[in-house]
Design goal:
The protein is α+β, with helices and mostly antiparallel strands and 272 residues long. The strands form 3 sheets. It has a 7-stranded mixed beta sheet. It has a 6-stranded antiparallel beta sheet with strand order 12-13-9-8-11-14, covered by helices on one side. The chain has 2 domains: 150 residues, Gcn5-related N-acetyltransferase (GNAT) (Aminopeptidase, 3-Layer(aba) Sandwich); 98 residues, no CATH class. 21% of the residues lie in helices and 31% in strands. A hairpin with a 2-residue loop joins strand 12 and strand 13. It contains 6 helices and 15 strands.
Length: 272
Amino acid sequence: MSERASAAEAGEIAALTRAAYAAGDPFPGLPVPDGARETAASVRADLRAGALVWVVRDPAGRLTGVLRVHPHAGEWEISRVATDPARRRTGAARALLSMVDEAAVAAGIARIRLDAVVERCLPPFYARLGYRPERHWLPGDKPLSEVSMIRSPGTPVTAGPAWLPPGPEAALVVTWLLDDRGLTAVIGTGTATAGPGARLAGVDVHPDPGRHDEVLAGLARHGRPAGAEVHFPVPRAQLRAHLMPRTVHPDLHARYRPAPGAEPLVTTTVAR
């Protein structure tokens, strides 16, 4: 059952949000997400400020999912998407987003927007639900990378790209490849051929080509350099430079990260 929530449910909403965000990261060691500190007071404050809160409950009435919508002129902004950690992959988030989509159509809203943290592997999920990347940007409060994603409500839900491929302005690209040897970071600006069975574990971008040697040296401190590549004989979860590339250089931002176990097979990369 999906429905709009009221201030009377603020405590329940805050508790579910905290639990979901505290257990939601695909890798250990990332900065604590803001949602993990959610309070009933902040939920009520958002409601007073005009936010709309939708919830999903199971047949027994237990809260299984929640999200918030902040109305702007001609646009709705989604935040605090949260599902019960014990009931993930049951469709609660999809149901909530579908309900918001229908409500936006009824309200004459032309666009829905949300911000997704790349290092938390969130953009591919929203891309499967019809959201398209619009802008990559760097938040100032955490060494992470975000992408703003948009959707025109009422349009067909078709899966699309989760990231904007580097364009001419992206002079330095780090492509992360995963195979049975571990991780390899390929650093450059052109294309390269991946080995048999390699999977794409991520793409990072730096706007300044003059930082090539600095970025290479920063990555080499954690692995074994070999020309324009650095090899790391560890899984993704154990490499801080992969988990948070901005710890290598503050302007090296993550452009793409698939969820662990969902890395796509590749034949070419986007950097060398």
